[in-house]
C-alpha cells in the first residue's frame, strides 16, 4: 500500500550558545528519523520525555522546518510547500496539542474556535451552514450544539480536548497528529478521549499519528509503534510484536516499567540506570550504551544500523539477537466468584461491541 506520510532521514538541530562566554553547540532533537505510515492506520511514537518525539510531530506537520531530510504527504513534499500548496496540505493534516486549554483562544467562543477552519478552508459556506456544521462537529465529539456559545474556560479538561478534536476535524482532514493528547487529563477522562479518537479514526477513515509516553494507551489504540531514544528510532514494528517480543534493551526496559500487581518479586524486570544523555552532547556509538546492561566495546564505538526482519520489525541494536528474552515471572492472583462476576458485567458494559477490539474501558 502506498504510504500517506513518509519521513526520510529527517533531522532537526537547534543551535545553542554563541554568547560572549558561551561555546556554540547543537541540540540534536531529531537526528535522522525515517518512517512510513499507511492510510487508515494508527501509528504511535513513544519514548521518555526529551527523546524528541514532540519535535518530530511538529516536523511532520511542518510547524517546524527540518535542518535536513524530507517529509512527504500523499506524494507531495511537505518541507518544500509554500502558499496555496501549504494551505492545502494543512487542510488535509491537522494537529491536536497536548494542553487543551493553552491551545484554545480564551477570547473566542467554541463556535468561533471550531468554525474558524471552515472560514479558511470552506469559504463558500454561508453563516447558517457553517453554524450547522459546527453543531455537527460538536455532536461527533460528544458535545451539545448550545456549547457553541460558551468559552473554553467554562469546560472541563476533557471537554476542552474534545473541542480541540472538533476543531481539528473541521477542515475534513485525512491525517491527524496528536501530541500526547490525553497526558494532561485525568485517568478516567483519558479513557473517554482515547475511545473517541479510536471511534473517529474508524468511522471517518482517518490516519492517526499519536505521540505518547503512556504505553497502556498505545497498547490499546495503535496498529504500529516506533520507539524513540535521543532523537533516533531504535525499534519499530506492529504493536503486538513490539509489546510481546521487544528486541531492543530500551524497549524492554520501558515495557518492564509498567506496574504489574501480579509481579511479586520484580526480579525479572529490565531496569534503566542513570539519566538520558544530553542531546547537545550525545555519546559516541550507540546512544543507549551509557545505560544499557548489555553494552560492549562495539556499542561504545559504532552506531548500530537498523536491521529489519521480513515481517517489518526493525531494531537498531548490535546485540539484539544475542540478548535472551526475560519474560516476567508472575503469580496469578485468586479472585472470588463474586469478583469475577462483577468483572464480567463491567467488561460487558464497557466493551463497546465486537467491532472495538482495542477499546479501553471508561473507568
UniProtKB/TrEMBL annotation:
- Annotated GO CC locations: plasma membrane
Q: Which PROSITE patterns match?
A: ABC_TRANSPORTER_1 (PS00211), ABC_TRANSPORTER_2 (PS50893)
User: Which terms are listed as keywords in the entry?
Assistant: ATP-binding, Nucleotide-binding, Transport
Entry keyword annotation includes ATP-binding: yes
Q: Please state every residue range assigned to the domain named ABC transporter.
A: 5-255
- Membrane topology field: Peripheral membrane protein
* Family annotation (InterPro entries): AAA+_ATPase, ABC_transp_ATP-bind, ABC_transporter-like_ATP-bd, ABC_transporter-like_CS, Oligopep_ABC_C, P-loop_NTPase
Kindly list the GO molecular function terms attached to this UniProt entry: ATP binding; ATP hydrolysis activity
Q: Which GO terms describe its biological process?
A: peptide transport; transmembrane transport
Instruction: Give yes or no: UniProt keyword Metal-binding.
Output: no
By sequence similarity, the record places it as follows: Belongs to the ABC transporter superfamily.
Q: What is this protein called?
A: Peptide/nickel transport system ATP-binding protein
Amino acid at each position: 500500500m502506498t504510504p500517506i506520510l513518509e519521513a526520510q532521514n529527517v533531522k532537526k538541530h537547534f543551535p545553542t550558545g554563541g554568547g560572549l562566554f558561551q561555546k556554540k553547540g547543537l541540540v540534536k532533537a531529531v537526528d535522522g528519523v525515517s518512517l512510513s505510515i499507511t492510510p487508515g492506520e494508527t501509528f504511535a511514537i513513544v519514548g521518555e520525555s526529551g527523546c524528541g518525539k514532540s519535535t518530530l510531530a511538529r516536523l511532520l506537520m511542518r510547524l517546524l522546518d527540518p535542518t535536513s531530510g524530507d517529509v512527504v504527504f500523499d506524494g507531495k513534499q511537505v518541507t518544500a510547500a509554500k502558499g496555496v500548496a501549504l494551505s492545502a496540505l494543512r487542510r488535509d493534516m491537522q494537529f491536536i496539542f497536548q494542553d487543551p486549554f493553552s491551545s484554545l483562544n480564551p477570547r473566542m467562543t467554541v463556535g468561533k474556535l471550531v468554525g474558524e477552519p471552515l472560514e479558511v478552508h470552506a469559504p463558500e459556506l454561508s453563516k447558517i451552514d457553517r453554524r450547522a456544521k459546527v453543531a455537527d462537529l460538536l455532536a461527533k465529539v460528544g458535545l451539545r450544539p448550545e456549547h457553541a456559545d460558551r468559552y473554553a474556560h467554562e469546560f472541563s479538561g476533557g471537554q476542552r480536548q474534545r473541542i480541540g478534536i472538533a476543531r481539528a476535524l473541521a477542515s475534513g482532514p485525512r491525517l491527524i497528529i496528536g501530541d500526547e493528547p490525553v497526558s494532561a487529563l485525568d485517568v478516567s477522562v483519558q479513557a473517554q478521549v482515547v475511545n473517541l479518537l479510536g471511534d473517529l479514526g474508524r468511522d471517518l477513515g482517518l490516519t492517526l499519528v499519536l505521540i505518547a509516553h503512556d504505553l497502556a494507551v498505545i497498547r490499546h489504540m495503535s496498529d504500529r509503534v516506533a520507539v524513540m531514544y535521543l532523537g533516533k528510532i531504535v525499534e519499530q514494528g506492529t504493536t503486538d510484536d513490539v509489546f510481546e517480543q521487544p528486541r531492543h534493551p530500551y524497549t524492554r526496559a520501558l515495557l518492564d516499567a509498567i506496574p504489574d500487581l501480579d509481579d511479586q518479586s520484580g526480579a525479572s524486570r529490565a531496569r534503566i540506570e542513570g539519566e538520558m544523555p544530553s542531546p547537545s552532547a550525545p555519546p559516541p556509538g550507540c546512544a543507549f550504551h551509557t545505560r544499557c546492561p548489555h553494552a560492549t566495546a562495539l556499542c561504545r564505538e559504532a552506531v548500530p544500523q537498523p536491521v529489519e526482519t521480513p515481517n517489518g520489525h526493525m531494531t537498531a541494536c548490535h546485540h539484539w539477537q544475542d540478548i535472551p528474552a526475560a519474560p516476567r515471572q508472575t503469580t496469578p492472583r485468586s479472585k472470588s466468584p463474586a469478583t469475577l462476576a462483577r468483572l464480567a458485567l463491567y467488561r460487558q458494559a464497557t466493551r463497546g461491541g465486537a467491532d472495538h477490539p482495542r477499546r479501553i474501558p471508561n473507568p
